[in-house]
Specification:
This protein is α+β, with helices and mostly antiparallel strands. Helices cover about 15% and strands about 60% of the residues. It is elongated.
C-alpha cells in the first residue's frame, strides 16, 4: 500500500515538473511576439501622425535665358540636392490617406565656362507640401505629392554680348514627386523618390528697363532622383 502511494506521489511530481518546463516561454518567441504586437498596435494598416525625413539626390536641369539673349537658348546643368521635410499623415479610407507638411533644402550646381550663366547654390525656403499616400502594408507604401515654395539663388552670374553682371534673385518653385517607402524598422524607413520641378523668375509688373536683368523673365526645369531616410514619430 505504501509503495502504491509512493508511486502516485512520484507520478504527480513528474507531471508538475513537466508542466512547469512546458509553461516556460521561449525568449526568442517572446521577442518576436512583442515586435509583432508593436507593429499591429502602432501601424494598424495606416501610418499616421508625424514624419521627419532627409533626402539627397542628383538632378538634371535645363535653364532658359532667352529673355537675355535670343540666341542663348537652353543650358543644361547638373546639381546635388538636399531636402529636410516634415509631414503629418491623416488616414482617409482604409490604407489610403493624405499628408500635409513643409520642407527646406539646398542645391549646388555644376559650372561650365561656356554657359551664359553660373549659379553657385540655391536655398529653398519652407513652403507647402501636400500629397496622397497608400499604405501597401505595414512596411511598404506609395505616395504622390505636390510642393510649392521659393528658392533663393545668390548670386547668379550672367554673361552675354551685351550684359555681364551678378544678381541675387528669388524664384518661384514647384515640385511634383512620386515615392516609395520601405520600413526596415518600426520607426525607420528608406525612401526612393522621383521628381519633376519647375522654377521661374517673373518680370516685375512695374518694370520698364530691359537692361536690368531683374526685369527679365528666366526659368529652370528638371528631373531628379533621390534616396532618403524617414523617421516616424510614434
Amino acid at each position: 500500500m505504501l509503495s502504491h502511494y509512493r508511486s502516485l506521489i512520484f507520478a504527480f511530481l513528474l507531471l508538475g515538473l513537466s508542466s512547469l518546463s512546458t509553461a516556460q516561454p521561449n525568449p526568442a518567441e517572446e521577442d518576436n511576439k512583442i515586435v509583432a504586437d508593436s507593429w499591429t498596435r502602432y501601424v494598424r494598416g495606416f501610418r499616421k501622425s508625424h514624419h521627419f525625413s532627409m533626402t539627397g539626390g542628383i538632378a538634371q536641369n535645363k535653364w532658359d535665358f532667352s529673355g537675355f539673349d535670343s540666341g542663348a537658348g537652353a543650358e543644361e546643368t547638373n546639381s546635388l540636392i538636399l531636402k529636410l521635410r516634415y509631414s503629418f499623415h491623416i488616414p482617409w479610407r482604409g490604407r489610403l490617406g493624405f499628408f500635409l507638411g513643409t520642407s527646406m533644402g539646398a542645391r549646388v550646381e555644376s559650372k561650365d565656362d561656356k554657359h551664359v550663366h553660373k549659379s553657385n547654390a540655391g536655398y529653398q525656403y519652407p513652403g507647402l507640401w501636400a500629397g496622397m499616400i497608400f499604405n501597401i502594408d505595414s512596411k511598404k507604401r506609395l505616395w504622390l505629392s505636390y510642393e510649392r515654395f521659393l528658392e533663393r539663388n545668390d548670386p547668379i552670374e550672367i554673361r552675354t554680348p551685351t550684359l555681364d553682371t551678378k544678381i541675387g534673385t528669388t524664384m518661384t518653385g514647384q515640385d511634383v514627386s512620386l515615392g516609395f517607402d520601405y520600413f526596415f524598422d518600426l520607426r525607420w524607413a528608406i525612401s526612393f523618390e522621383f521628381h519633376y520641378d519647375y522654377f521661374k523668375h517673373y518680370e516685375p509688373k512695374s518694370s520698364e528697363s530691359k537692361t536690368n536683368p531683374l526685369n527679365i523673365e528666366f526659368s529652370r526645369q528638371g528631373y531628379w532622383a533621390g534616396v532618403g531616410v524617414i523617421f516616424h514619430h510614434l
